Amino acid sequence: MLLNPAYQRGPRWANGQRIDLMRSWLQGVPIPAVVVNERTNPAWHRVDPELRVTYAVVDGRQRLETALAWQDGRLAIPASWLPPDWVHTTEETTDGPYVRVSSLRTPRRVQRLMDLSCVRAKVATEAAEAAIYLLINNSGTPQSAEDLARAAEVADS
Fold first, then answer.
1. What is the pLDDT of residue 60?
2. Is 91 within 8 Å of 79 (Cβ atoms)?
3. Do the strands 55-59 and 34-38 form a parallel or antiparallel pair, or are they unpaired?
4. To the nearest whole percent, how much of the chain has pLDDT over 90?
5. How far apart are CA 41 and CA 31, in angstroms?
6. Closest C-alpha to 59, from 126, 140, 118, 139
7. For 103, which DSSP code?
8. Among 10, 87, 99, 112, which has the highest number of CB atoms less than 10 A from its own CB?
9. What is the pLDDT of residues 50-98, one digit of tens each?
10. Contact 81, 95 (CB under 8 A)
11. Model confidence pLDDT, tens digit, residues 87-121
12. Which residues of 49-65 are buried (b: 16+ CB within 10 A; e: fewer)?
């Protein structure tokens, strides 16, 4: 799987954003699907006869990288988010005790909560993939600072 096609932005999420995604998974918040393109048709092989990539990530790179960081033990989350009997050991941080996947009694409990849907396109060129990327990432209206502040005020009440 190719995580970084030419049109895709590089790693952007800060650690806090990754932790927020983990929190969303743990709370059962629906996470947008990852969009991949299947690069198995003959057109891809004509461009690159030695093609070793089956899929390219069109949208969802940051979500996939977060899941991989958790699975590899490079991401820690607050231990308080998990039932105490799930946690084997913690590490102290300035925010309190945190836990990594390797610190859990049964890591599969968290893994089962990490639902990440995937949708598959079958377009024949990188330009067509980039067009899908633009449709997904340039079609909505960005939240204003005022919109986000209003929601934060309600969340804090």
1. 95
2. no
3. antiparallel
4. 75
5. 29
6. 118
7. G
8. 99
9. 777 789 999 999 999 999 999 999 999 999 999 999 999 999 999 999 9
10. no
11. 999 999 999 999 999 999 988 899 899 999 999 99
12. eeeeeebbbbbbbbbbb
Q: Beta strand 91-93 with 77-78: parallel, antiparallel or unpaired?
A: unpaired
The rounded distance, in Å, linking the Cα atoms of 74 and 125 is: 34
Question: For strand 118-121 and strand 34-38, is the pairing parallel, antiparallel, or unpaired?
Answer: parallel
**Of 111, 95, 117, the residue nearest 33 (C-alpha):** 117
CA-CA distance, 74 to 26, in Å (whole number)? 18
Q: CA 133: distance to chain centroid?
A: 16
CA 13 – CA 151 distance, rounded (Å):
21
Give the full edge-to-edge strand order of the sheet including 91-93. 77-78, 96-99, 91-93
For the chain, give the percent of residues with pLDDT over 70.
100
Residue given tokens 């699907």 in the structure block: 33
Enclosing H/E stretch for 16: helix 15-27
> Cα separations (Å) of 53 from 66, 82, 122, 133?
21, 37, 14, 18
- Report whether 136 contacts 35 (CB < 8 A): yes
Beta bridge partners of 99: 77
DSSP state of 97: E
